[in-house]
Amino acid sequence: MSEPSKFKALLASGRPLISDGAMGTLLHDRGVKLDTCFDALNIQQPALVAEIHRDYIEAGAQIIQTNTFGANRFKLAQHGLAEKVTEINRAGVDLARKVVEASFKDVLIAGDVGPLGVRLAPFGRVQPEQAFAAFSEQICALTSGQVDLLILETFADLYEIVEAIRAAKTCAPDLPVLASMTFTRDNLTLLGDSPAKVARRIHAAGADVIGINCSGGPNQLLNLLKQMREAVPEGVFSVMPNAGWPQQVEGRIMYPAGPEYFGDYALSFWREGASVIGGCCGTTPTHIASISSTVSKTNPASVQKIEVIRLKKDPSAAEAVALPPTQLASRLQAGKFAIAVEMDPPRGLTTQKLLAGASLLAEAGADVIDVADSPMARMRMSPWAVCELIQRKVGIETTLHFPTRGRNLLRVQGDLLAAHALDVRNVFVVMGDPTSIGDYPDAMDNYDLVPSGLIKLIKQGFNAGLDHSGNEIGQPTHFFVGCALNLNPQDLQGEIKNLRRKLKAGADFILTQPIYDIRHVTEFKQAYEASEGSPLPIPMLVGLLPLASLRHANFLQQEVPGIDIPQTALQQMAAAGEHGAAAGVKLAAELAIQLKELAQGIYIMPAFGRYDHAAEIIEAIQ
Description:
alpha/beta
């Protein structure tokens, strides 16, 4: 019987297969520093790795995983070993094979593949085809060493694990694939996908076994297993939990769940349909021995469930910290070029994908994230909550879009106080989109203040410690307020008049609608100076909306007021064909470079949530 067929036969035997536990935990416990490339130890210290494999086999593991979790070109590049992908992976397989042969036991070898350690587009810069190539390189190296199955583990990005499955099925179409995801305390992946969605997607992608690993302790994974089985009743499942949530004790990472506890939960995993059971971070051969012993001597009919304990989350109070001036204000006041990028709030509760995009933009060099409020009058999460999350979890400052439409004076002032209490102090005041074009066309569309009136309320009222009625609010706020500007209006003098009112009310900076021709900036500035007798008195960040395709460009040109795309740009988009998005990024980057001499910053509005395109523009001007 071939080894792949043997794995499937063992799965059908009626008892779960026992996999090994943590590799990194034991390597660290045996003196390997955390900044070491653990995968390279297959070559540098093979005896140490072999010893751990041997301990797991003695503990009863029927599957041992190669020490290749991070042996892909991206992670190895961090240690200067990108050219050794094949060598390190082959060494890992050969080492495991020698240990199995020396044990004279019937043990399967799983080629271990972890995530690439980089984000995939649109939340990162690595394209799916690049991820597929990296996974193919590693998996082909593992399969050339004749592994019995592949374990893709600890993935947090559903799109990434699908590329890994595709690479596995391409490199070795007959080899069994166990694909395993990790989850947060909220029982979602880092990008907000539910256990049910993960199970269905992994199953549809062709994985032979649907897995959960890492995450929290056994209790959480039992809950996740139940949800996944409900979503894919016909699926085959694997569970490999951490030894509880890690805790730091006297500078060391400790895991609280003991071996006996693991043995008890192994029966529940089995009862709930797990066909492969093992361990992840913090687990040791002792944990695996407990699982193996419990499973081997238990009659399936006598297995008892353990009820899932649902723990309530402890609420954490938000802290309000006033730190005037804001970082954006300081940058503009110092005459430095500022880069702002707009993001839309999520349509539902999950914010993981938005936070991943914000993290990418922060790493690329953005100075501030602008969070829109119900763009196109579509229902979305309140932006001030999103701003606070981005600032707290990503560490980059935000600008809150604050439309006057749909808000009465009570709500305007209450929302402003809430934003300031959460340290969201950059505010961009706009009229907002009419509800007639959005999800709820019959919704109330009234407003008590026009944008210039709201700017006056903030700058001359709240920032002076007074509300709209002149009552004290306890202490002054410290908002930095922006206003909107159309650089290509039908009524140029009317636009200048509106801007004059906003400046008189106290606006601190300007964000413009997107442009595609640099002359609109120069012509507006000249017209303003001729009308007012002086240059623009406050900083201006010019809007850039990268074109995604010729169709996108034609839509903007024909249907969006104020947009004027030069014929040369339309011709370039037409010539780009299916590479229109790349051409659009190039055009936007060229404009951004020119704007460094004409404005105090740029305001990027990525089309269709392509934050990786915004990152490319930022890199081009830096």
